[in-house]
Amino acid sequence: MGAGIRILAALLALLAAAGGGGMMRCAAQQLSATYYDTICPGVEKIVRDAVTLKVQQTPVAVGATVRLFFHDCFVQGCDASVIIVSSGNNTSEKDNPANKSLAGDGFDTVIQAKAAVDAVPQCANQVSCADILTMATRDVIALAGGPEYPVELGRLDGLSSTSASVDGNLPPPSFNLDQLTAIFAANNLSQADMVALSAAHTVGFAHCGTFADRIQPAAADPTMDPGYGSQLLAACPPGVDVNVAVDLDPETPKVFDNQYFINLQKGMGLLGSDQVLYADVRSRPLVDNWAANNTDFLAAFAAAMTNLGRVGVKTDPALGNIRRDCAVLNG
Fold it and tell me: Residues forming the annotated binding site for substrate?
């Protein structure tokens, strides 16, 4: 049995065993992998081709798109509301301080894919930005060596985006295991989902300010490998430009693999919320298991991404629509 088949089989088993609240199951039942088969045939290939071109041009789009998807789903659900720009008297999610560090290439990935879809007459204004973001996220992960899993489609785009809605809904890098588990549980995601999804940090980067408190010589984090801490301090000395960033995974930063968990075993988790997954004995067994088995990790990650993609989904036309421009609410 090939690795891809094993991953898919494990993914199906994980999804079959997944729990979750009734509201989440109801929303998931309204999504379908074949949703666009008659509405916009070939939409997944259209998106994949656009995303492939974007990643070839700008490799950082991989981590940027994955992070954009997470930040979208955890605030008002997976409805592409994070892409909307501020206008008039309204400050959108995008301009909340917690989202200021979202890389522009994540937004551009969706915008380019949307343009490619709408260039096909039958598909114009028929595919939601939320679904395009979902497909694009899966595609960038696959392009970086991660799993290529089936995505559920049929989401509508949200009708509002406010900065206030972000507050308290995204986990900061200072969260401990209990806090991480609680904020994921609030979105019908298990602790195992949380640990798997945290491994999205196998790609992408983080700005120095998000981990500065862990590397200061006077109060160095004892869970961090001293040599790694010294490297980070050299890259991010006191007073460094706030725009300076380092790879979240110092070993294989462009490959979507289980190196994230191997790094945690070595005390080389960049953020406190990364390293706590190994430091806390309750989550350590998952870290050890996925550090030892990349196939198991990829299957668990794919299952967790499917669960994440169900969070706060809008399928009722009274609650959402298909945005003509992903960055602007329909007039």
Answer: 171
Active site residues: 71
Domain boundaries, the chain: 19-170+311-321
Single out the residue of 180, 203, 163, 151 nearest to residue 307, CA to CA.
Answer: 151
Which DSSP helix (H) or strand (E) runs through 129? helix 129-143
Backbone dihedral angles phi then psi of residue 153, each to the nearest 5 degrees: -130, 165
For residue 105, the model assigns a pLDDT of: 96
Q: Which fold has domain 19-170+311-321?
A: Peroxidase; domain 1 (1.10.520)
Distance from C-alpha of 66 to C-alpha of 105, rounded to nearest angstrom: 11
Do strands 157-158 and 320-321 pair parallel, antiparallel, or not at all (unpaired)?
Answer: antiparallel
Detail the residues annotated as belonging to a binding site for Ca(2+): 72, 75, 77, 79, 81, 93, 202, 249, 252, 257
When pLDDT is averaged across residues 285-294 and rounded to a whole number, the result is 98
As a whole number of angstroms, the distance between CA 20 and CA 185 comes to 9
**pLDDT tens sequence across 135-178:** 999 999 999 999 999 999 999 999 999 999 999 999 999 999 99
Query: How much is the pLDDT for 39?
Result: 97
Task: Give every CB contact of residue 45 below 8 A, 6+ residues apart in sequence.
Answer: none
